[in-house]
Amino acid sequence: MINNKKTEFRLRVVLTILAALLFFAVKEVYWPVIVSLIITFILAPVRDVIQKGLTRFVHRKIPVDISILLSFVVLIGVLVIMTNSIVKPLISQLKLLDNNFSTIVGRTYELVIQLESDQAPFYIPDQVKAIINETFIKISNYGIDGVTNLVKSVFVIAGTVVEFFVVPFITFYFMKDGTKMMNAFVGIYPEEYRRHLHAYFSELHHVLSRYIRGQLLMSCIIATLTSCGMWLMDVPYPLVIALIAAITEWIPVIGPIVGAVPAILLGATVSPALALKVLVFYVIVQQLDGHLILPQVMGKVIRIHPVVIVISLLIGGTLFGVAGMILTVPMVAVLQVTSEHLWFFSSYRERMTKENGKN
């Protein structure tokens, strides 16, 4: 009997792993689910606020379906406002940047050469100069097409007819029956260990939801600060720079540095003094981000040492490019939570061994 229970437990674990591998092997399946999970994490607090507000207003419990639908209305309203106030001007600046990209690259390259010829202390070694020349040639050939193609790819993936209907559908039921789904999954395992599995999935949900919401809020704050700063300093294409800052904010440690480079180069096309101002601005924003915004928004959600993050960034960037670098922290957080709960499996094995010994 005990051996049968042990075999049954192992079989369920193996089947769970195989199901997970199959899920991630079919991108047409996992991308809509992942997007739905992210939207669920973002909208869950909105749903809860609406639910509490309506309950107090009508003095009786409101069906959760209504709160979920109203949270979708809020999301659509925010997207419409953003499209009119941000996306349209952003697209105009991207088109203008595309038209002037070769000129901007040429000006920046001329500035580097001028700095070397006019300023004696500013010496550029031949090896570094060769790297700079090669980089500018690649940038000139690459142009803004890379960004344009990336944006087009995102919209092609997200804009298919199937996903347009599937993502809201999955999101609705994640928000409505997420707890029931988790209970059903946990229910396939032995009863004495369901409490531990509930604790594991609850902590996983807490970490990922807090991270995604916090990171999204931080990106919005950094994008707002950056766009305002670039606009006040008359740096060209402030919305494009803000978009880059928002995206690179998701890459820990090196993201803000990478995001500052385009802004400094665009400032340099106007004047070296403006480039220096942009550099100082980014240093100040980075200090605010690291010492004020990050602790307030994220708190102690992610407890990962910076060395582990950097190593994980290298691995993620090498294997999956920019997407791998962005997903590094949440994936490492999942592994961290999982490793902390691995005692559950060892505890189960120890109990099975003791029960076998008694029999």
From TrEMBL:
Pfam families assigned to the protein according to its UniProt record, in alphabetical order: AI-2E_transport
Q: Does the keyword Cell membrane apply?
A: yes
Membrane topology per record: Multi-pass membrane protein
TM spans, by residue? 9-26, 62-87, 154-175, 216-233, 239-258, 265-284, 304-335
Where is this protein localized, as stated in its record? Cell membrane
Record bears the keyword Iron: no
Keywords of the record:
Cell membrane, Membrane, Transmembrane, Transmembrane helix, Transport
Q: Which InterPro entries match?
A: AI-2E-like
As for family, the record states: Belongs to the autoinducer-2 exporter (AI-2E) (TC 2.A.86) family.
Protein name per UniProt: AI-2E family transporter
Q: What's the source species for this entry?
A: Anaeroglobus geminatus F0357
**Lineage of the native species?**
Bacteria, Bacillati, Bacillota, Negativicutes, Veillonellales
